[in-house]
Design a protein that fits this description.
Blueprint lengths: L4 H21 L3 H29 L7 H23 L4 H18 L15 H35 L4 H5 L3 H34 L7 H21 L5 H25 L8
Helix pairs in contact: 1-2, 1-4, 2-3, 3-4, 3-5, 4-5, 5-7, 5-9, 7-8, 7-9, 8-9
Length: about 270
C-alpha cells in the first residue's frame, strides 16, 4: 500500500491542477471548493506516505531521489495551505501545482525501495540540515509561482485590459508582499541549511567545505537570494524586478537540486 500511495497522490494533484485550469474559464464556488478538496485528500495521503517511511527508516525520508522529491513537494504544499488559509486565494493552486506535478512526477519515476541508511547519512545532522533546506527551498518555489502571478497581473494593468482572469488574481501590492515574506522565510532557512551542512561535513570529513558541486551551487543560490533581499532593502527593488529575480532564484534551486544530481559528480547526489 505504501508504494501505491505516490501514484494516487500524483493523480489527485493532477486532477486539482486540471480543475484549476478549468477555473480560468468558469469560476464558481463549487469549482474552488473541489480544488481544495482534492488538495486536502492528496496532502493527507501524501503525509501518510511520508510518515509510513519515517517509521520504517527511523528518520526523515529524504535518502534517495524518490523520497527527497516527494518531501520537497510535500513541503511546498505546507506553504501553499498556509497562504490559502491566510489569503484565501484559490487561484494560487494554478501556479503552484505545475511545480508540484514536476516534483511528484520525478518521485514516481524514481526507484522507491527502502534501504538502510548509509554510514554517512546516519547522523543527527540529517534532520536539521535537510529540513532547513527543503522548507527553505519550498518557500522559494512558491515565491516563484507568486512571481509569475505578479508578472501576469502587471501585464493586465499596463494594457488596461482587465478581464475575468485579472479579477481572480490578488493585487500586485499583495503579490509583492507575499513574495517578500516568502523570501524572508526561505533565506534564513537556507542559511541554516548551509551552516548545519558545514558542521556535518566537518564531523564526517574533517573539513567544513569541500567545494562539492552541490555545495558550490547552494552557495550560488544563497547569493542570489541575498542579492534579492539586499536590492529590495537598499535599492528598493520591488514589484516586477523582485518577481523576475524570485523566478530566476528558483531556477537556480532546481539546478542545484536536479541539475547537479544528474549532470555532475557529487557526494550529495540522490540515486
Amino acid at each position: 500500500m505504501i508504494f501505491s500511495l505516490p501514484y494516487i497522490v500524483f493523480g489527485l494533484y493532477t486532477i486539482a491542477l486540471l480543475i484549476s485550469i478549468v477555473s480560468i474559464y468558469k469560476d464558481s464556488s463549487k469549482i474552488k471548493n473541489s480544488i481544495i478538496y482534492f488538495l486536502i485528500c492528496a496532502f493527507a495521503l501524501h503525509s501518510g506516505s511520508i510518515i509510513s517511511r519515517f517509521f520504517i527508516l527511523g528518520t526523515i525520508p529524504i535518502t534517495n531521489m524518490y523520497e527527497s522529491s516527494s518531501f520537497f513537494a510535500w513541503s511546498v504544499m505546507v506553504i501553499f495551505f498556509y497562504l490559502y488559509y491566510r489569503y484565501r486565494v484559490t487561484i494560487l493552486a494554478l501556479f503552484i501545482l505545475p511545480i508540484m506535478s514536476l516534483l511528484m512526477f520525478v518521485a514516481i519515476m524514481s526507484p522507491n525501495e527502502i534501504h538502510p541508511l548509509s554510514p554517512l547519512l546516519n547522523s543527527f545532522w540529517l534532520v536539521f540540515h535537510t529540513t532547513f533546506a527543503f522548507v527553505g527551498n519550498s518557500a522559494f518555489a512558491v515565491s516563484a509561482g507568486i512571481g509569475v502571478m505578479y508578472l501576469i497581473q502587471e501585464r493586465y494593468l499596463k494594457r488596461k485590459r482587465k478581464g475575468d482572469f485579472f479579477n481572480k488574481l490578488p493585487s500586485v501590492q499583495i503579490l509583492d508582499e507575499i513574495n517578500y515574506k516568502l523570501i524572508t522565510l526561505g533565506f534564513p532557512l537556507i542559511t541554516l541549511a548551509i551552516i548545519t551542512g558545514a558542521l556535518w561535513a566537518e564531523s564526517a570529513f574533517g573539513t567544513y567545505w569541500r567545494w562539492d558541486p552541490k555545495e558550490t551551487w547552494s552557495l550560488f543560490t544563497w547569493l542570489i537570494y541575498a542579492l534579492i533581499l539586499h536590492l529590495r532593502i537598499i535599492g528598493n527593488w520591488r514589484g516586477k524586478k523582485a518577481a523576475i529575480l524570485s523566478i530566476l532564484g528558483f531556477l537556480s534551486v532546481l539546478f542545484t537540486y536536479y541539475g547537479v544530481n544528474f549532470l555532475m559528480e557529487s557526494y550529495h547526489s540522490f540515486k
